[in-house]
Amino acid sequence: MTATRPRPATDQAEGRPDTRSRLLDAAEALFAERGCETVSLREIGRAAGAKNVIAAQYWFTDRDGLVTALIERHAPGIAERRTALLDDYERALADGTAGDEAERLHTLVGALVRPEADKLDDGTSGAGYLRTVADMLTRPEPSTASIGMDAESGSVFRWRALINPLLDADAIELHRRFHAIRFMFVELAQRTRAPGRTDHRLFVSQLVDSMTGLLGARSSAETLRLRERR
């Protein structure tokens, strides 16, 4: 007698994405349009066509859980691309072809920006991701930890270790790297809202240039004086 296979717990048996994936798809679309702070879990459930009105709560517990899952959905591809760029940089550094300090700084900024900027070509999914991260970083109490960028095994942690020797020590202490990361995501999120623009090469190149200037700038005497008075 042949045993009967149990029916899968998801809709994949019917050739449809499972409920969790549909909820994330719906969240990306709604977040791309309105941002992650104004969309309720119930709205996401309805948009996903979930039969249970609290489906999003079941799968993600709360909004932060859903946001974390959305970011983690995109993280592996971004990390893979950044890791490849950092590998290229370290090979160039080892064989003496990485250029002078200014060129090395520009290359490393590109390694931060370009994997994120690739999401501009991912339609609604990429737009939802970029706007979500921008929203997280512009909260009253933002942190890179909230978007998974502080993990010691992560590509951003490695990027920070490589770029630190090229930065002014005072700028590091004053969180210039965080300001640059926030600036990057705000600009990328804004770009997703520019209708009809499909060639992002000039935009991305200028963003890399701008962030290179931001990170490479020396702290002024006024800034250092004010810091000492804190």
Care to describe what's here?
The chain is 64% helix and 0% strand. By secondary structure, the protein is mainly α. It has a domain at 75-221. The termini are far apart. The model is unreliable at 1-15 (pLDDT under 50).
Features:
mainly alpha; disordered N terminus; 64% helix
Sheet having the most strands: none
Please give the share of residues in helix: 55-70%
What's the β-strand tally?
0
Q: From N to C, what is the helix and strand string?
A: HHHHHHHHHHH
Q: What low-confidence regions span 5 or more consecutive residues with pLDDT below 50?
A: 1-15
Pfam family, one: TetR_N
Domain HTH tetR-type: 23-51
Keywords: DNA-binding
InterPro entries: Homeodomain-like_sf, HTH_TetR
List the helices and strands and how they pair.
Layout: H1 19-34, H2 41-47, H3 55-60, H4 63-95, H5 101-117, H6 123-137, H7 155-163, H8 169-173, H9 176-191, H10 201-216, H11 221-228
Helix pairs in contact: 1-6, 4-5, 4-6, 4-7, 5-7, 5-9, 5-10, 6-9, 9-10
Question: How would you summarize what this structure contains?
Answer:
The chain is mainly α and 230 residues long. 64% of the residues lie in helices and 0% in strands. This is TetR family transcriptional regulator.
